[in-house]
Amino acid sequence: MINRREVMKLAVCGSAANVSSSGRLSAQEREGTAIWVNPSTGVDGSAGGKDNPLRTLAAAARLVNQSTGTGPVTVVLTEGIHAIAETTLLKPERRSFTKSERLTIRAELLPGDPGWNTGRMPALIHTMPMKQTWNGRPDPLGGVADGMLVETSHVSVLGLKILGWPVVETPVAGQIRRLYGINRFRRDLDDLEVAQCAFLGEDAIAPHHVGIIANGDGINVHHCIFRGMKISVVYWTPGSKGHSMRNCLCLDLYGSAVWTAGIANDFEYRNNVVEGCNYVWTSQGGASALADAAGRGVTPAKPQEPVHYKVINSYFANNRRLTGSGTGARLQYKDIDSSFLELIGTKTSGQRSVIEHDQTKREYLHPVAGSEAAKVEAGLHMKPLA
Questions:
Q1: How far apart are CA 18 and CA 72, in angstroms?
Q2: 52-56, 328-332, 379-383: range with highest mean pLDDT
Q3: Backbone φ and ψ of 29, nearest 5°
Q4: Peptide bond into 306 cis (omega under 30)
Q5: Taking each helix axis from N to C terminus, what angle separates 57-66 and 4-13, rounded to the nearest 10 degrees?
Q6: Distance (Å, rounded) from C-alpha 64 to C-alpha 130?
Q7: Which residues partner with 184 through β-bridges?
Q8: Domains of the chain, first to last
Q9: Distance between CA 325 and CA 349 in Å, rounded?
Q10: How many other CB atoms are there within 10 angstroms of residue 101's CB atom?
């Protein structure tokens, strides 16, 4: 159990924790002012320093939630297998964050740091029991799990490998057991960054329903890989603003590579590669999004009609369809006209790219160097591959 002294320590140490502009841990963090999580050596209930880490991410979240004051807080996950046996609830009620002083959940090493390789990414495997409610309401579809539930603004999630949930997704007709890797349910929140993360699923082993589903404004997803899952990102609040999806690689998604629910036309979509997916883009119309929100007890901002999004410098290859409509977990896709998308410097192809499968290489799971897809510079690396 976390005692009062440890909570007060975080209130002091958190004000010093920061991430340098290079993405590497600052000197203060290396010296132990961040909260550290090590699944091999950690003990929940410890102080959470580098020399006495916690064992689970959920315990680190509880320490954050009990802290007070202002200033940034960084939770550092070491390499290894992190069993997510309960939802990581990020809900600090006596601590506030800002755009420059954030709550950051990150890997110890990020792509580009010396010594990084894909094997050193913290791997989050979801092992929690199935819930029969979702966001406070009964779930009619057979069960659900939230990996990370974000209930505060100004949050970054960096450098994690987020795996699926080892269940059978549809064991009987009508059931859809669903894992939402990162969920932000409140529509009054702003500024969620997810970067350099790999969201991976496999429908027979560890299905992953949605990597990121978030209400509110300012959902910025960049330099991520989404592979073998149903949907990458759902931008969920009609009329919300300030969103982006940049330099992401979406491979073999059996739902769609992005879902927009009547969000504003300022959505920045650029430098993404989408290959082998069922749909490139699901557009939920404004009226449908409003009805869906009302069914969840939400009163959203008025959606922008008609929607029009620029698709800049991207590459789409061997996808079944470009655009579809849908609603709810059952998807119920229907092909729709794609004229609401304006393709600018974006190429399409009927041929798949060659994906690098040599695990020792920096570009593992990326298109091979020199290919049309590789020129887009999508994937985990913020600098072009050498």
A1: 6
A2: 52-56
A3: -70, -40
A4: yes
A5: 80
A6: 25
A7: 214
A8: 4-376 (2.160.20)
A9: 22
A10: 16
* pLDDT tens column, 7-56: 434 543 433 334 444 456 665 454 446 999 999 999 999 999 999 999 99
User: Looking at residue 256, what DSSP letter applies?
Assistant: B
* pLDDT band (50, 70, 90) for residue 340: very high
- What value does the mean pLDDT take over residues 343-347? 97
Count of residues for the chain?
386
Helices (H), the chain: 4-13, 27-28, 57-66, 286-295
C-alpha 164/C-alpha 206 separation (Å) is 4
Amino acid, single-letter form, for residue 345: G
Cβ(248)–Cβ(236) under 8 Å?
A: no
Beta bridge partners of 150: 90
**Token reading at 286:** 């404004």
CA dihedral 258, 261, 267, 272 (to 10 degrees): 0
Q: Of all helices (H) and strands (E), which one includes residue 33?
A: none
How far apart (Å, rounded) are the C-alpha atoms in residues 18 and 40? 25
Letter string b/e over residues 329-339, b meaning 16 or more CB atoms within 10 A of that residue's CB: bebebeebebe
Q: Is 0.85 surpassed by the pTM of this model?
A: yes
Closest CA to 301 of 206, 190, 160: 190
Cα of 319 vs its chain's centroid, Å = 22
| Straight-line distance from the first to the last Cα atom of the chain, in angstroms, rounded to the nearest whole number | 47
pLDDT of residue 18: 40
As given in the structure block, the two tokens for residue 114 are: 């010396």
Q: What is the pLDDT of residues 164-211, one digit of tens each?
A: 999 999 999 989 999 999 999 999 999 999 999 999 999 999 999 999
Sign of the alpha-carbon dihedral angle for 130, 83, 199, 48: positive
How far apart, in Å, are the Cα atoms of 273 and each of 18, 177, 199, 242, 353?
32, 28, 15, 21, 10
Distance from C-alpha of 365 to C-alpha of 124, rounded to nearest angstrom: 18
Q: Give CA–CA dist 243/307, Å, rounded.
A: 14
Using only C-alpha atoms, the chain has a radius of gyration, in whole angstroms, of 20
Reported as a single tens digit per residue, the pLDDT across 225-284 is: 999 999 999 999 999 999 999 999 999 999 999 999 999 999 999 999 999 999 999 998
Check residue 23 and give left, alpha or beta (phi > 0: left; psi -120 to 50: alpha).
left
